[in-house]
């Protein structure tokens, strides 16, 4: 048992010119202070205290000398030309050493700080120091310091040594035995003279021009409990759980692929004239189809059987030979667009009231497929250039936290932050492994479909078949990379989560939502979808706006006005492009698109309000614009501080709206949902609902001060290792994976349908 001594002094003197000086000399150090004791706050405010109580650095008996009495010298002096009365009291502390798992209550104030000793038990390698208080204020600093004298226990020096964090009602610090060679440490409690650091305001008694305050009552009752942290075996269990949970998805995918392989080998085919469609949706034929296709007709041409009015639009270009769909083609998309017959046909075709997929899949498949593969290569380039500086920055953040000991830099859930190596919260990083594993699995699934499709094309002349949705996999590959990068960047953000680097966690979320919308639109508009360059340029603009929102979005009204205008105008411009299927160009005058939008509003909503020319598209765009305008008004009125999440909400709502519209129109068109996409839709809805439940269990918030954020901290809920936010990571990764599978398999039922029978919406 270690003995400690506490010295209490009191002086009635208020003369700041002649304070009473107290110097305590011990065997291993000297401690000094003055009365009145002066604390300095913001704006040159001073807080003076006439009562001071300090704990002296304890001396532990050594095996050589054994127990001995402590010899302490207390010197009292003052330069005052008159006598000053003071009171001196020295007492022995009965409960200086804290015990494991036993709560201890005490009181502290700015001039009467407290600290206690804790020794690691033999079988404990890590402990969590939990501090609670019923009152939020006064603001408190909890510090863990090595056994070194003097102990830094005043407001102006508590940050000089050890690990520390501010607190209002709750604090938690994880301490490891390896960080303290002596296997013991001091827990220091300091009450700050002001509450700015914890989000409080200036006390009402000192508002105005009064900059000097005497004996302000700032006493706080605290309770400290030190409990053992998890053992190393829990780390191993958590890692096994994380990897095995998501490797089970690989096993499920293998089972589905095996069942598909068996069903294919059993010759489960459906005859379709001279064509047969296998159960996988891969089209084959028992013999080359030549009789039904006129010589010289172009790929995707509309014949007499089309519902486009009986007009046959053919091209003198001969179709490419079988198996020529390779990436070695040197043709460019512009070569095809400048062909006279295509220029004359496409504007006529796209003005039809009822469009079919054959109308919007007329371009050479090799060129279109190559165009969409640019999405894949571009996102890899973006990921590398974006991730490397992010990784470097968060490593710097973690290094600063470890070197300075300032745990107010990062907004962890300190009640469930398990360190490993240099990382302060390894559990928050490990829980992102699902995004990377499932993103890679999705790439493998897409690769399998791509390979099967290529094999079918090499075996037969599929250009004459003209069945199903055109198979372009570039956007799917990009989505898989984006899912993996979301896991990487989310892990980087959780190395040290704070206000400055939150956009790391959301940047690829924007890209995932945007790519999903582009893929959904590309499904039935393969010829007119956005190019990779314009799409990624748009994402870059969004990320720039997100950065500006982080800097200016908190209080600046002008930023919200400009952003709302950009949001509304972009919605109108995009709506006009979608409504007219990209058939007009903005030209030299950038206001032309808005004039066209006004003309659409006049012709379709005023002149023929009862029946617009494109009813389905008009309904979607009206609802979409109402949603986006509502977001713009909400942002303008409430100005949410979490601007990155606000933009992400806009993306997600637009994606859900478009997906719901697509499925409704698909069912309206008498199309079917096969068992696999139906299962994926149900799984997506269920898993997203569960994920969002855990997402809204707020465990920290960088919108507040670090001390206020800790009030939201909660213990672990899964395996004693993962908290609610980690469960959100697990479930959101699975939900995104199922969402991607929905887009991948949604139109598998159309593989047996001719493209001139598949409606466009």
| Alpha plus pi helix count | 16
Mean pLDDT: 81
> Could you give the order of strands across the largest sheet?
9-17-11-14
Strand content: 5-15%
Span from first to last CA?
A: 80 Å
What can be said about this structure in brief?
With 761 residues, this protein is an alpha+beta fold.
Report on this structure.
The protein is elongated and about 105 Å long. The protein has helices at residues 232-265, 333-337, 340-349, 365-404, 426-430, 433-459, 474-495, 502-524, 532-552, 557-579, 592-607, 615-638, 643-668, 675-695, 706-710, 724-745; strands at residues 4-11, 20-25, 30-35, 37-40, 46-49, 51-55, 73-77, 86-93, 104-108, 114-119, 126-132, 140-145, 163-167, 170-176, 184-191, 212-214, 220-228, 269-272, 275-278, 283-285. A 4-stranded antiparallel sheet has the order 9-17-11-14, with no helix packed on it. The chain has 3 domains: 4-63 and 70-201 and 214-229, Jelly Rolls (Sandwich); 232-261 and 365-550 and 673-760, no CATH class; 555-640, no CATH class. The longest helix is centred in the middle third of the chain and has 40 residues, at 365-404. It is of the alpha+beta class.
């Amino acid at each position: 048992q270690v003995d400690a001594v506490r010295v209490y002094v009191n002086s009635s003197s208020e003369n700041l010119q002649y304070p009473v000086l107290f110097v305590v000399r011990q065997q291993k150090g000297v401690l000094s202070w003055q009365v009145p004791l002066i604390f300095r706050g913001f704006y040159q405010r001073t807080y003076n205290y006439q009562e001071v109580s300090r704990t002296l650095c304890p001396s532990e008996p050594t095996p050589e000398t054994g127990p001995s009495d402590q010899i302490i010298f207390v010197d009292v002096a003052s330069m005052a030309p008159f006598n000053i009365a003071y009171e001196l009291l020295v007492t022995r502390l009965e409960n200086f050493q804290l015990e494991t798992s036993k709560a201890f209550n005490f009181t502290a104030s700015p001039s009467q700080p407290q600290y206690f000793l804790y020794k690691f038990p033999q079988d404990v390698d890590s402990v969590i120091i939990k501090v609670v208080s019923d009152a939020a204020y006064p603001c408190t600093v909890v510090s863990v310091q090595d056994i070194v004298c003097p102990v830094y226990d005043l407001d102006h020096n508590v940050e000089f040594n050890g690990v520390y964090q501010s607190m209002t009602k709750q604090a938690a610090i994880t301490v490891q035995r390896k960080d303290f060679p002596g296997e013991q440490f001091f827990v220091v409690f300091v009450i700050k003279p002001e509450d700015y650091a914890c989000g409080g305001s200036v006390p009402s008694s000192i508002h105005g021009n009064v900059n000097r305050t005497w004996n302000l009552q700032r006493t706080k009752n605290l309770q400290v409990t030190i409990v053992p942290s998890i053992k190393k075996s829990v780390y191993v269990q958590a890692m096994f759980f994380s990897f095995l949970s998501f490797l089970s998805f690989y096993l499920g995918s293998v089972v589905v692929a095996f069942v598909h392989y068996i069903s294919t080998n059993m010759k489960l085919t459906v005859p379709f004239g001279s064509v047969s469609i296998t159960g996988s949706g891969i089209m084959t034929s028992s013999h080359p189809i030549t009789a039904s296709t006129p010589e010289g007709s172009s790929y995707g041409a509309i014949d007499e059987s089309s519902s486009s009015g009986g007009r046959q639009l053919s091209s003198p270009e001969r179709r490419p030979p079988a198996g020529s769909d390779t990436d070695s083609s040197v043709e460019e998309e512009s070569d095809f667009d400048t062909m006279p017959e295509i220029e004359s046909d496409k504007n006529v075709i796209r003005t039809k009231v009822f469009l079919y997929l054959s109308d919007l899949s007329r371009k050479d498949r090799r060129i279109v497929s190559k165009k969409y593969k640019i999405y894949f290569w571009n996102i890899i380039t973006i990921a590398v250039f974006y991730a490397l500086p992010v990784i470097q920055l968060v490593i710097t953040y973690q290094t600063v936290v470890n070197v300075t000991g300032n745990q107010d830099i990062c907004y962890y859930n300190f009640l469930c932050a398990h360190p490993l190596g240099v990382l302060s919260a390894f559990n928050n990083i490990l829980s992102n492994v699902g995004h990377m594993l499932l993103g890679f699995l999705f790439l493998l699934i897409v690769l399998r479909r791509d390979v099967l499709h290529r094999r079918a094309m090499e075996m037969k002349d599929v250009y004459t078949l003209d069945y199903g949705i055109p198979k372009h996999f570039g956007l799917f590959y990009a989505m898989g990379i984006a899912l993996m990068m979301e896991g990487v960047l989310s892990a980087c953000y959780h190395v040290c989560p704070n206000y400055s680097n939150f956009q790391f966690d959301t940047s690829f979320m924007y890209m995932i939502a945007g790519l999903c919308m582009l893929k959904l639109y590309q499904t039935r508009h393969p010829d007119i979808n956005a190019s990779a360059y314009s799409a990624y340029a748009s994402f870059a603009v969004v990320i720039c706006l997100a950065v500006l929102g982080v800097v200016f979005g908190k209080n600046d009204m002008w930023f919200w006005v400009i952003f709302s205008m950009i949001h509304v105008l972009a919605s109108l411009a995009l709506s006009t492009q979608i409504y007219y299927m990209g058939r007009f160009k903005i030209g030299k005058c950038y206001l032309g698109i808005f004039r066209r939008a006004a003309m659409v509003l006049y012709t379709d909503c005023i002149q023929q309000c009862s029946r617009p020319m494109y009813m389905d598209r008009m309904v979607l765009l009206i609802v979409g614009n109402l949603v986006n305008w509502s977001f713009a008004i909400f942002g303008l009125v409430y100005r949410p501080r979490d601007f990155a999440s606000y933009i992400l909400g806009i993306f997600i709502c637009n994606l859900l709206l478009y997906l719901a519209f697509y499925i409704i129109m698909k069912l309206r068109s008498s199309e079917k949902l096969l068992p696999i996409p139906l299962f994926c839709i149900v799984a997506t809805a269920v898993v997203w609902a569960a994920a969002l439940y855990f997402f809204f269990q707020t465990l920290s918030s960088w919108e507040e001060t670090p001390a206020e954020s800790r009030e939201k901290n909660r213990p672990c809920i899964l395996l004693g290792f993962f908290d609610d936010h980690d469960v959100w990571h697990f479930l959101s990764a699975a939900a995104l994976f199922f969402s991607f599978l929905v887009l991948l398999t949604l139109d598998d039922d159309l593989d047996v349908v001719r493209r001139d029978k598949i409606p466009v919406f």
